[in-house]
Design brief:
The protein has 23 helices and ten strands. By secondary structure, it is of the alpha+beta class. The protein folds into four domains: about 110 residues, Butyryl-Coa Dehydrogenase, subunit A, domain 1; about 110 residues, Butyryl-CoA Dehydrogenase, subunit A, domain 2; about 120 residues, Butyryl-CoA Dehydrogenase, subunit A, domain 3 (Up-down Bundle); about 140 residues, Butyryl-CoA Dehydrogenase, subunit A, domain 3 (Up-down Bundle), CATH 1.20.140. The strands form three sheets. Strands 1-4-5-8 form a four-stranded mixed β-sheet. A hairpin with a 2-residue loop joins strand 4 and strand 5. Helix 3 packs parallel to helix 6, helix 6 runs parallel beside helix 11 and helix 19 runs antiparallel to helix 20. The structure holds flavin-adenine dinucleotide.
Length: about 575
C-alpha cells in the first residue's frame, strides 16, 4: 500500500494504464468467492446442474421452435433464478455481483437463452430499481420480482436509436398532477413479451436533463408488446417490441432523478456486464469439454486428431483465453462488489474481451468437429449462433472500444493539462509537451519501486519476466497515448482507428494483469510445481499480448489508415464492389 491510488476507491485501474500508471491494489490478491456465499453458490450450481443437464433435447427443441414454454419459465421461478441479486430483505438470495456472474456461468453451460431470460431480468431489467429505486419502490416491486411473479425488462433501444442511446424519441410528457404520459415504441426488448415490469427510458426535456427512467407495469393502460422476433441465435429467449400508447405513468414511478435517465441507463449497463461475462465463460467451458471429447475420439491418419499440433494449438488457446476471461470477469465483479466507484472502463474491457473470446472458442470448437460441427445434430452450430449476439448487445464492441480509448485518453489529457497548466500548450508546442506523459509514467513507476523495475510488485517471481513485459507495455502505451494526443488534441474524437489500437492495447494489458494476479495467488497458495499449467497459461497469454500490443502501438505511426478509409469512401461512393475478372 505504498501509493495513494491503492486505497482510493475512485482510481480506475484501466484508466491508469493510459498514463503509465499501474494500480495493482484492487487486483492483488486475486479475488474469489468466500465463506458462506461460496457455499450458497455451490448449492445453486448443483441444483442448476440437476435441473438443466438432463434437458439437452428440450433446449434444442426450444431453439428450433423459438420459444421457452411457460411451464419451463415456471420451473426457473421455482428454482429461485429470478431472485439471485435481490437483497434478502426483499425475499431474494442477495448474491454479490461476482456470485451472480458465477451462477450465470452455470446456466450458460447448458442454454444461452435461459441465461438471457434470467440475465435480462436481473442484469438490466430490475437493476435500475436496485441501484436508484426509492425504499417505497423497492418494497413495492422487489418481492414480486424475486418470485418471478413479475419478470423484468429493460427498454432503451428504438428503431432510430441504438448505439446513440441519447437520441431516443419515446416521450414522457409531464401532466399537471405530476404524472407523465408516455408515448413511443421500443424494439428488440428481451423478455418483452413476458415481462410485467419495465424499466423504460424516455425523453422528458426537463431543466435537469433530457432523459428520465420510469417504472412501467404491463398492467398500465396502453402498454403492449409485439410478436416474438425470429432470431439467428438465443432463439428461445423472448425478444419483442414494446409499445406505449398514451400510458399514464404516476409520478412515483420516476426511477432515480428526473432528467438523469441517461446516467441511470449507463450505470445499469456497466453494472450488468459481469452477467454477460459469466455467461460467456460458462459457454466456453462447455465448448472446451466438448472439443476435447471430440478431438480424442476422432481418429484420422491413424491417430486421434488431438495429437496433431494444429488441433493442440486450438485447444490450448481456447483454454488460455477462457482462463483469461474468467480472470477478468472475476476482477470486474470484485471491483463492483468492493465499492470501487469508477469501474466502467474495466467493465467495458471485460465485455469486449470475453465476448470475442467466446466467439473465437465457438468457432474453433466447431472447426475441431469438422463436418459434424456444421450439423444441427451436434451442439456447435447452435452455440455459434447463440454467441454472436454478445458482440452486439449491451453496447456494441465498437462503441465500447471507443469508450475505453476515449475515457483513458481523457484522464491522460487531464494529467497533461494539470502538468502543463494548459492543454493547448501541450498540444500546440511539441517541444514543451514532448515526453511529459512518459516521464510522468516513469516517475509513477519509480514511486512504486524502491528497488527498481517492479511496478507490478506483487507478481510471483516465477512470472517476473511476464510482469516486466506488462510493465513495458504500459509504459509504451502511455507514450503512444501522449504522441496521439499531441498529434490530434481534441480531434482524437474523429481518430477511431488510433483510439481502437490504444483501447485494444489497454484491454490486453488489463487482462494480463488479471491473469498474473490469479496465477500469483495460485503460486502463493500451492507452490511452484503444483500450478505448472497455470504458469504456462500466464506465460502464453502475456507473450501473445506483448506481440499484439507491440503491433498495435507500432501501427499508431505506421499504418495505411488513410488509404483504407479512402478506399472505403470510394467503394461506398460506388455503391458496391465494382471489379470482376470477366
Ligand atoms: C437479440 C437482441 C436483444 C436485445 N435486447 C435488448 C434489450 O433488452 N433492451 C434494449 O434496450 N435493447 C436491446 N437490444 C438492442 C441492442 O442493445 C442494440 O442492438 C445495440 O445497442 C446496437 O444498436 P443497433 O442495433 O441499433 O446498431 P447501430 O447503433 O445502428 O450500429 C450498427 C453498427 O454501427 C456501429 N456504430 C454505431 N455507431 C458508431 C460510431 N459512432 N462509431 C463507429 N461505429 C459505430 C455499431 O458498432 C454497429 O456495428 C437487443 C438487441 C438484440 C439483437
Amino acid at each position: 500500500m505504498s501509493h495513494e491510488t491503492e486505497t482510493r476507491t475512485d482510481a480506475s485501474i484501466a484508466k491508469g494504464l493510459f498514463l503509465g500508471d499501474i494500480r495493482e491494489g484492487h487486483i492483488f490478491p486475486f479475488p474469489g468467492l468466500k465463506g458462506e456465499e461460496r457455499e450458497t453458490v455451490r448449492m445453486i450450481l448443483e441444483s442448476i446442474d440437476r435441473f438443466m443437464a438432463p434437458k439437452e433435447k428440450e433446449f434444442r427443441q426450444f431453439d428450433h421452435e423459438g420459444v421457452q414454454p411457460s411451464e419451463y419459465i415456471e420451473e426457473l421461478k421455482a428454482l429461485g433464478l429470478f431472485s439471485l441479486i435481490i437483497p434478502p430483505e426483499y425475499d431474494g438470495l442477495g448474491l454479490s455481483n461476482s456470485a451472480y456472474s458465477r451462477v450465470l456461468q452455470q446456466t450458460s453451460r447448458y442454454d444461452a437463452s435461459t441465461s438471457l431470460t434470467i440475465g435480462a431480468h436481473s442484469s438490466i431489467g430490475l437493476k435500475a430499481l436496485l441501484l436508484f429505486g426509492s425504499d417505497a419502490q423497492k418494497t413495492k416491486y422487489l418481492p414480486r420480482l424475486a418470485t418471478g411473479e413479475m419478470i423484468a425488462a429493460f427498454c432503451l433501444t428504438e428503431s432510430g436509436s441504438g448505439s446513440d442511446a441519447a437520441s431516443i424519441k419515446t416521450r414522457a410528457t409531464k401532466n399537471g398532477d405530476g404524472s407523465f404520459t408516455l408515448n413511443g415504441e421500443k424494439i428488440w426488448i428481451t423478455n418483452g413479451g413476458t415481462a410485467e415490469f419495465f424499466t423504460v427510458f424516455a425523453a422528458t426535456d426537463s431543466d435537469a436533463g433530457k432523459i428520465t427512467a420510469f417504472i412501467v407495469e404491463r398492467s398500465f393502460s396502453g402498454v403492449s408488446s409485439g410478436p416474438k422476433e425470429d432470431k439467428m441465435g438465443i432463439r428461445a429467449s423472448c425478444t419483442t417490441t414494446v409499445r406505449f400508447d398514451d400510458v399514464r405513468v404516476p409520478a412515483e414511478c420516476v426511477l432515480g432523478e428526473e432528467g438523469k435517465g441517461f446516467k441511470v441507463a449507463m450505470a445499469v449497463l456497466n453494472n450488468g456486464r459481469t452477467g454477460l461475462g459469466g455467461g460467456c465463460v460458462g459457454a466456453m467451458k462447455r465448448l472446451i469439454e466438448l472439443s476435447i471429447a471430440q478431438a480424442t475420439a476422432r481418429k484420422q491418419f491413424g491417430k486421434s486428431i488431438s495429437e496433431f499440433q494444429l488441433i493442440k494449438e486450438k485447444i490450448g488457446s481456447m483454454a488460455a483465453i477462457c482462463f483469461a476471461s474468467e480472470s477478468v470477469v472475476s476482477v470486474v465483479g470484485h471491483l463492483i462488489d468492493s465499492g470501487v466507484e469508477d469501474f466502467s472502463v474495466e467493465a467495458a474491457m471485460s465485455k469486449v474481451f470475453v465476448s470475442e473470446a467466446l466467439w473465437q472458442v465457438a468457432d474453433e470448437a466447431l472447426q475441431i468437429s469438422g463436418g459434424n460441427g456444421f450439423m444441427k445434430e451436434y451442439p456447435y452450430e447452435r452455440v455459434v449462433r447463440d454467441s454472436r449476439i454478445n458482440r452486439i448487445f449491451e453496447g456494441t464492441n465498437e462503441i465500447l472500444r471507443l469508450y475505453v480509448g476515449l475515457s483513458g485518453m481523457k484522464d491522460a489529457g487531464d494529467v497533461l493539462k494539470d502538468m502543463a497548466k494548459s492543454v493547448s500548450g501541450i498540444f500546440n508546442d511539441p517541444i514543451k509537451g514532448f515526453g511529459v506523459l512518459s516521464s510522468y509514467a516513469s516517475k509513477k513507476i519509480g514511486q512504486y519501486t524502491p528497488i527498481g523495475r517492479q511496478a507490478l510488485s506483487q507478481v510471483h517471481p516465477a512470472l517476473s519476466q511476464e510482469a516486466a513485459m506488462v510493465e513495458q507495455g504500459v509504459a509504451k502505451l502511455a507514450q503512444g497515448v501522449e504522441s496521439v494526443l499531441r498529434a490530434h488534441g481534441k480531434g482524437i474524437i474523429g481518430q477511431q482507428l488510433l483510439t481502437k489500437r490504444l483501447a485494444d492495447s489497454a484491454i490486453e494489458l488489463f487482462v494480463n494483469m488479471c491473469v498474473l494476479s490469479r496465477v500469483t495467488s495460485m503460486l502463493n497458495e500451492r507452490g511452484i510445481g503444483a500450478v505448472d499449467t497455470e504458469v504456462r497459461i500466464a506465460k502464453y497469454l502475456v507473450h501473445a499480448s506483448h506481440q499484439k500490443v507491440s503491433g498495435y502501438l507500432k501501427a499508431l505511426n505506421d499504418n495505411r489508415d488513410h488509404d483504407l478509409c479512402a478506399l472505403a469512401d470510394s467503394v461506398i461512393g460506388a455503391g458496391g464492389y465494382s471489379w470482376d475478372v470477366v
